[in-house]
Amino acid sequence: TATATATAPATPTAQPGPSRLQDLPRISNKFHFFLSHSQQEAADTVKALFYQFRQHQTAAWIDMQAGAITAQSMRVGVLDSKYFVFVLTSNVLNRPFCLLEACTALELGKPVVLVVEEDARFAPFDPDNPACLPDFALEPTDQELARMRAWYEKALAKKMARNPNAAQQAVEALVKQRQQVVAALATLLETDEAAAWRRSKQFLDLVQDGLRRKGRHRPPGTLQQQQQQ
Hints:
- The chain is of the alpha/beta class.
- It is about 45% helix and about 10% strand.
- It contains seven helices and five strands; from the N terminus they run E-H-E-H-E-H-E-H-H-H-H-E.
- The protein has a five-stranded mixed β-sheet with strand order 2-1-3-4-5, with helices on both faces.
- Helix 3 crosses helix 7, helix 4 crosses helix 6 and helix 6 packs across helix 7.
- The longest helix has 24 residues.
- The radius of gyration is 18 Å and the shape is globular.
- The two termini are about 25 Å apart.
């Protein structure tokens, strides 16, 4: 994982502007790669990738170099990139703007490259953790709730000795968070929450499929790359 320190980019804003892809300005393949990530968790990693690409005369869209960062500029960046690179970290799939970028990539049929952070020092992505991969329904089924409770009962075993309700509380908090994320995504996509959930679920399914095809368990301390064609 990169050790360089990155300057925190500006916070994206949902400014008015074209929301439909056909209304966005088109500059075909201006960039080779669009680098999508959680700023709080993967800024250093993505900055390192950006400069590695530059050394090989490869152009990449990155928020730290994009000037004004808005929902529209992100969608245009995806539109103008050949490949969509998504850095999987602990909380990235709970970030509405990252999901907006991912949904845009799927809508445009962009090839998706998954970069999985597995170093415990850098917000690692754990596909078994329901908070990392929140692929449950807006109103979770009994089976989904049971699966989440089972995971938290194991993860919070020590805490549950003091608070027997810790696992249930964690599940309730996660469900509420997912609902809030989907509501925010619906606003960005200018659609209803059910449609926003379906579109985000498509990307979560792609992530699961990529991890399943490449193997879920890998040695720690590496960034694993997986490409979906």
